[in-house]
Design goal:
By secondary structure, this protein is mostly helical. The protein has one domain (about 15-500): Growth Hormone, Chain: A (Up-down Bundle), CATH 1.20.1250.20. Helix content is about 75%, strand content about 0%. The longest helix is centred in the first third of the chain and has 52 residues, at about 55-105. It is globular.
Length: about 500
């Protein structure tokens, strides 16, 4: 019987990556296939099969995604206090499988119930697998950014395949000869459930390689006491499902929820800060500032699942260089494809620059992220200059816009995840990671509001008029992104002091 590795032995690895990152990589990859496959279908399905108008679909999308990411804070909290990262991940996977299976059985009747199970499940799954990646590295290890870049490539490998395949099957653009028309959406959602099962099996079969990473924080307690707390957590999360279902179905409750959860999360962190040193608390404040800026980034970026989904369906051609492609599939997956191609090389570039003491710090990377985002949205705006008389523009130009935005995402998202693990005390790590995703929730929420605002301006418009309205909206978002990037770089000396030497 092989001896279980200690965390010190795991962190004492040679080369660029710890071997334990690979099971986490593949588990996250298949889970993201499931998540992004389902996400990419939401707006189109709501408009074309639930008969929502474009404004309501945008608001509904924003609400759904906001709850998904907001619940990661709850999942991180229970992981830190009761379940541990591993058990939280497993329980979250089970809930996501249930939700996806319900959607596969009857996506119209079980739409909000299936979404609710996925919301709660993602809350337990997502923050904990990310924080376990951070646990593979010692504090100060300059290889951690490269590790998160690799992990992020896994995220996007799943997002690429799931984002394209599920919507294409549902719309009948893929394997339509094999799937009866009446069953296309059942199969599309069913595919999401299958890959979630593969994700969970991947993790359960390989978790022994993680040593003592992610085990329950209550191992010192009597077994019965620990079991009682765990059962109460499981029961509580099941009770939360119908509550979330009701709140997701009624977008007017999203405002109340978002006005409440964020301040409560911040107050909880402030309460916990009394247990840490001044230096540690300054780092926590720096983490909160990064979260604030990330809200603005995701509010613009996440137009992908909302307004850009509608834009792709109405205003883009169906081919690139003569190759027939589903425009919604391109919208859902092109960004992920670029991440797969460029994430690892960019991560290795950071490592190469670090070895030569020339790597830009996290603040500069964040600023660059906003600048790339601004350029990409200006390209979306320019699509109106290349349209025909019917308001149909170039799918290739649209894909190029995502190419530019991808580098913005790579400068912010994996770097942000990495810096959260660096700035947060070990005992608060999952909570801070959960708050990082909570910031994404606010981004998703505002993305829905921004998308709804663009959609409302285009009601009763011709397709050509819609193209102009949507394109002008993206120009404004590009300007706001540029302002945010400049502001971040301007205050970088202040943030750098708070970070206490962390780059």
């Amino acid at each position: 019987m092989s001896k279980e590795l200690t965390i010190e032995e795991i962190q004492d690895f040679k080369g660029k990556y710890p071997k334990q990152i690979w099971p986490l990589f593949f588990s996250e990859m298949w889970e993201r296939f499931s998540f992004y496959g389902m996400r990419g279908m939401l707006v189109f399905f709501m408009i074309n099969h639930l008969n929502f108008n474009e404004v309501v679909a945008n608001l509904q999308y924003g609400a759904t995604q906001a709850f998904v990411y907001a619940f990661t804070f709850v999942g991180g909290l229970f992981a830190d206090k009761i379940l541990g990262k591993r058990r939280s991940l497993f329980w979250g996977g089970i809930l996501m499988i249930i939700g996806s299976v319900l959607l596969a059985i009857n996506p119209s009747d079980f739409f909000f119930l299936g979404i609710a199970f996925n919301v709660v499940g993602t809350g337990f799954f997502k923050p904990n697998i990310s924080s376990m990646v951070g646990n593979l590295y010692r504090e100060g290890d300059n290889r951690v950014d490269a590790g998160f870049m690799l992990f992020y490539a896994g995220v996007n490998a799943g997002a690429f395949f799931g984002g394209y395949a599920c919507i294409a099957i549902g719309k009948g653009e893929m394997i339509s000869s094999l799937v009866p028309e009446a069953m296309r959406w059942n199969v599309a959602f069913g595919l999401s459930s299958i890959f979630m099962m593969i994700s969970l099996l991947t993790f359960t079969q390989t978790q022994k390689k993680l040593g003592n990473i992610g085990l329950s924080p209550l191992l010192h307690l009597p077994k019965n006491t620990r079991l009682t707390r765990e059962i109460l957590t499981f029961v509580g999360s099941l009770i939360a499902v119908p509550v979330i279902m009701f709140m997701v179905a009624k977008t007017e409750y999203t405002d109340w929820f978002m006005y409440t959860i964020g301040p409560l999360a911040v107050l909880y962190v402030i309460f916990e800060m009394r247990n840490f040193s001044v230096v540690e608390n300054k780092k926590i404040v720096a983490a909160l500032l990064f979260m604030i800026f990330s809200i603005f980034f995701w509010a613009f970026f996440e137009q992908s699942g909302g307004s850009l989904s509608i834009f792709a369906a109405n205003n883009l051609s169906d081919s690139i260089l003569g190759i027939p492609l589903d425009p919604n599939g391109v919208n859902n997956s092109s960004n992920s494809l670029y991440v797969i191609i460029f994430a690892t090389p960019l991560g290795l570039l950071w490592l190469w620059l670090a070895n030569r003491k020339a790597e830009p710090n996290t603040i500069v990377k964040f600023g660059l992220g906003f600048i790339f985002l601004a350029i990409g949205f200006y390209i979306f705006y320019s699509s109106k200059l290349f349209s025909d008389g019917n308001g149909i523009s170039s799918l290739g130009l649209f894909a190029f816009g995502w190419f530019i935005i991808t580098f913005g995402e790579l400068c912010l998202s994996p770097i942000g995840t990495s810096v959260m693990t660096k700035l947060s005390p070990q005992k608060l790590q999952a909570v801070i990671m959960g708050m990082w995703f909570l910031a994404s929730a606010y981004g998703q929420y505002f993305a829905g509001l921004l998308g709804a605002n663009i959609a409302s301006a285009s009601e009763n418009s011709t397709n050509l008029e819609k193209l102009t309205i949507y394109a002008d909206g993206y120009k404004q978002l590009g300007i706001y992104a540029l302002i945010a990037g400049i502001l971040l770089i301007a205050i970088s000396p202040f943030i750098k002091k708070l970070m206490g030497g962390i780059k």
